[in-house]
Amino acid sequence: MSPLLELRGLGVRYRTDRGEVTAVRDVDLVLEAGETLGLAGESGCGKSTLAMSVLRLLPKSARVDGEVLLDGEDVVTMGWGRLRAVRWARASVVFQGAMHALNPVRRVGEQIAEPIRLHGGTARVADLLDQVELPAAKARSYPHELSGGQKQRIMIAMALACDPKLVIADEPTTALDVIVQAQVLGVLSRLVAEQGIGLVMISHDLSVLASTCDRLAVMRHGRIVEQGPARSVIAAPTHPHTQALAAAFPVVGDPAFRQVEPDEVRESTPLLRAEGLRVDYRGRGGVVSAVKGVDLEIGSGEIVALVGESGSGKTTTARALLGLRPPTAGRVLFEGADLPTSSKGLREYRRQVQLVLQDPTSALNPRHTVYESVAEGLRIHRVPGDEAALVADALAKAELRPPEEFFPVLPHELSGGQRQRVVIAGALALGPRLLVADEPVASLDASVRGEILALLLRLRRELGLAALIITHDLGLAWSIADRVAVMHEGVLVEQGTVEQVLLDPSHEYTRRLLAAVPSTTP
Amino acid sequence: MLRHVAGKLGGAVAGVAAVVVLGFFLFRMIPGDPTVTMTRGRQVDEAQIAELRALHGYDRPIVEQFGKYVGGLLRGDMGTSLFYRRTVAELIGERVGPTLLLVGTSTLIAVTLGLWLGIRGAWRRDSLFDRTSTGVALLGWAMPAFWLGMLLSMVTGDLFPSGGMRFSSTPPGFWPQALDVAHHMVLPSLTLIAVVYAQYQLVMRSSLLEEMNADYLTTARAKGLRDDQVRRRHAVPNALLPTVTLVFLHIGLVVTGAITVETVYSWPGLGLLTYEALAGPDLPLLQGTFVVLAGSVIVMNVLADLLYQVLDPRVRAS
Fold first, then answer.
1. Domain A5-249 CATH class label
2. What's the pLDDT at A416?
3. Which CATH superfamily is domain A270-360+432-516 in?
4. CA-CA distance, B216 to B158, in Å (whole number)?
5. Which of A97, A323, A420, A474 is 20 to 30 A from A256, comparing alpha carbons?
6. Omega of the bond prior to A402 within 30 degrees of 0, cis?
């Protein structure tokens, strides 16, 4: 009896303008029926290419070598008619449905029923929706009317529509909040186990894979560098890359991941303070309160993590603190004085408090060189002194050395981590006292995250730079923050030192958040 | 939803009002005295012209003339043509039919042809079909309508009539008349189609190209759909959305664009009427056609908006 899925010497090359690029090289992999396999790796390691090659969904520019055996039948050499019959009926895919994998102008019920009608069989949409714990009425919804978690459930229902024996889940929970992620993973694992489906799950997050898969394979540069039972790969990784991946997702409560010395902040004076901060948005359905009375303080040289799910009001809080959005009620004080309201005063204030955004790729103008990007702030604020020297100094502080070599470089020539350093350098050039960083590492690869976090810590040690880090990632808060504030539905439900909040939470919501974090130790 | 529709209709009414104001004052700036037009070819003296002016109110202050014009409009009276000596409403009513027939048929064909070519071209991007069809479309787009019209009548010789809408010798019954009109319509509609279909094709093409790499198309392929099913069921409905706005906006404009074509082929429609009014200048008639043409653009715009609501669930919700 042949295995459910077997890859033999699989290689994938893409033809591009700059010649051939090898995405996957010489991969051998076996998955038995009912088995679950996690495929881990950073962006560009070839894991998605590998997954797409199973149903031959690669773009036309791809060239595939080797064999992809589905129940002993080679997908690579299959005729088109046979391939279409195999697709979805034998193996289906759970795409990152929270994003764009659903057709925006068709009802989700139709989209679930479509493959059933195509492959023959009765459309049992209500039944499928019930399996993923959604009410049958949702079949009449359009994708934009559903939340990210609901869309992902729709994706799962769709994948199970034709009773496949193999399901490939490509980053199924990326972009979802922790609690929703835990729910979606729960639904997926339960259904796969109940129906004896083989699962290949792809993720950049080892902890997600560890909590759902029996076996793990780690990819790098198109090769599988380590493979084995999930438990042993996580507990005792042999390949340095696996170790780096594991280290990039800090385990809350594990002292090994805590990078802050207990008494690192000795004396701290209040720097930025919000008192009874309230921000209302006027929408069509009336007034919506995004922030409902927040008291928050950041001391000089202190790193505070503001943690919460999307929609909790954490970004709005940050915008109010930066003076980008006037508060409806309450005050924001910087060094004891109210935020200025004049544009000149605000400009002066923003020199002191700089913003670092989540995605450095969109934060940087693609046509500006590194020098231009960093110097722009200096010019706006008319900072006196030698511009080139100031830019070089800022780049050096952000650990882009030697700085002169980065001057003429354009953003697309840099790696993700380097781009985020350029953004940070742009902020540092103005000599701020506080950085407000909105998900500073969320869009970065695992191995680079640690470096950027270390940079923030070092800047604090050497320049006394305080930081407010906005994140949904509790592990990140554990690894570098002094204090944590947990935000839920516009309210700070709990704040205190990292040890207090994350090890001994007092609020029910914090406990739920902590319980939902996927753990590498099953 | 109702509020949205009401808002759109309110906007349209405001637009028409602006057109009325603009039309009135704009045409007063055209050089030429309307009373001179009326008396062209006749022996008149200064006193008679002054009398004529007083009769039509052209000697009154412009604001008063405007008030009178608007008052008439509200009562459905668009004035009387100086040249034809018939009411403007009557003239327009008589000419609307042929224009709708010509423009309607041509637009229908041009839209179908353009969308079809655009979809095919985008789906097989950079293929021979894509390149030639885009090239040909651009050639048509770049060609002046009057020149193409003259060229077509020269090339086809006596095959198709190149003027008017029907021969007086045609027997009265419905079928002979219909055939005769269709025969007369071949050249004008060919010209109109050739000149406008390119933009439908190009918008559809680029709109579909943008959707080509969408993730939901990969989902559709993974489900085992045939290539043409992926295109028909998933790609085209999404790519069609921006095209709808353009098509409807343009139908309004095509009516105006028909001025040249109708003039070249002496097609007795609104376009030809506008041309004749301009030549005068026959002010009441010109104002009338202007309001009707601009009004049709506004109405189509509102229709496009409402149709978009029906087609795109995302717009419907907000």
1. alpha beta
2. 84
3. P-loop containing nucleotide triphosphate hydrolases (3.40.50.300)
4. 54
5. A420
6. yes
